[in-house]
């Protein structure tokens, strides 16, 4: 009987079979449990003989069950490992993939184009004070750009520092001239803010500032730099720029720059000469020679250092290059719009 149970355990094929044997022998109404109960009705002499025998039997069966259980579990694991293989060389399922936003893409393109011309990328805070955003740039208290309807101001501070959301990237000119020693060649792309909203204006928009400070810089350097940049950006050599006299408090002289477009197969394309009659001009940026007073405001000697600066709307550039017509759509995060212009899969 003893040997029967042990050989049955050793040949149990499954964990369920083994459990059935355990219940049948060691369970509440199992055979070995019944044997243990008989000890109570025995004489002390009988118990002295039968007690150790029955306990030994129980221990042998318990140990055999534990042993068999372990080997059945090992075998089950082996079987699972053998069948559940994972092929690491299979391609993953194609889920949603992120892509680069047109504005970010244009910023990258600008950084690359200007890097080739020796320009570094500079940055400044979007929350500025009115000294960097206006005063240092020679914009007097009475200038219309300071009017509340254009500028987002923060509540007054105890220390009197007037904080605002920068209305252009030009304060980065000031910050760069105050920390870097000339010669300076930087572009400063980033977010700018004005309280304005329609198809071509959003309260937040993007500009890129350009600044060169060195000895003997003149308008010719500005014109060549802008032409080189615009040709590289629109990837055409036949682009014509038009510099129109203009006014900015921080540049003198100042020029607004238009880029020539022509009609090709009913589409407005940047490039070609509008003077030929089939096209027109689009304004793309403001520029000029840095005002000597601005150079002096930054602690540099304007008799030694001259320079040029320009400020250009990045969203505008993206619209012109990729043929988009509503600026507001740039910031809607609508995947259909991105797909339409090829910016998302
Ligand atoms: N900051 C000007 C604007 O936002 C653009 C500009 C920059 C003009 C640098 C001249 C020089 O309109």
Automatic annotation (TrEMBL):
Q: Which residues hold Mg(2+)?
A: 252
Instruction: Show the GO cellular component annotation of the record.
Output: cytoplasm
Coiled-coil portions: none
Textual note on the cofactor: Binds 2 magnesium ions per tetramer.
Q: Could you say which EC number(s) this protein's record lists?
A: 6.1.1.20
Q: What class of enzyme is it?
A: ligase
- Sequence similarity: Belongs to the class-II aminoacyl-tRNA synthetase family. Phe-tRNA synthetase alpha subunit type 1 subfamily.
- Specify the protein name: Phenylalanine--tRNA ligase alpha subunit
Source species, please?
Rhizorhabdus histidinilytica
- Name the gene: pheS
């Amino acid at each position: 009987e003893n040997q029967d149970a042990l050989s049955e355990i050793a040949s149990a094929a499954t964990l369920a079979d083994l459990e059935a044997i355990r219940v049948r022998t060691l369970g509440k109404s199992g055979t070995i449990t019944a044997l243990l109960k008989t000890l109570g009705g025995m004489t002390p002499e009988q118990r002295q003989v039968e007690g150790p025998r029955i306990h030994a039997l129980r221990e042998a069966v318990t140990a055999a069950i534990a042993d068999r259980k372990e080997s059945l579990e090992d075998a089950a694991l082996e079987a699972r490992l053998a069948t559940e293989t994972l092929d690491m060389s299979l391609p993953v399922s194609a889920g949603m993939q992120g892509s680069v936003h047109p504005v970010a893409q244009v910023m990258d393109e600008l950084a690359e184009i200007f890097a080739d011309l020796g320009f570094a990328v500079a940055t400044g805070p979007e929350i500025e004070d009115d000294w960097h955003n206006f005063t240092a740039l020679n914009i007097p208290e009475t200038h219309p750009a300071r009017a509340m309807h254009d500028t987002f101001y923060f509540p007054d501070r105890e220390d009197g520092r007037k904080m605002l959301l920068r209305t252009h990237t030009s304060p980065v000119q000031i910050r760069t001239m105050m920390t870097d020693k000339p010669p300076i060649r930087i572009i400063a792309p980033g977010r700018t803010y004005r309280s304005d909203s329609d198809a071509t204006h959003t309260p937040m928009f993007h500009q890129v500032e350009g600044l060169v400070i060195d000895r003997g810089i003149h308008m010719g350097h500005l014109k060549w730099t802008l032409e080189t940049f615009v040709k590289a950006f629109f990837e055409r050599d036949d682009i014509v720029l038009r510099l129109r006299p203009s006014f900015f408090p921080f540049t003198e002289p100042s020029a607004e720059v238009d880029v020539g477009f022509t009609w090709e197969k009913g589409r407005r394309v940047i490039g070609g000469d509008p003077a030929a009659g089939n096209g027109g001009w689009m304004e793309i940026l403001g520029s000029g020679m840095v005002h000597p007073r601005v150079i002096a405001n930054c602690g540099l000697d304007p008799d030694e250092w001259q320079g040029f600066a320009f400020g250009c709307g990045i969203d505008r550039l993206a619209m012109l290059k990729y043929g988009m017509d509503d600026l507001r759509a740039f910031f809607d995060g609508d995947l259909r719009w991105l797909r339409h212009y090829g910016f998302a899969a």
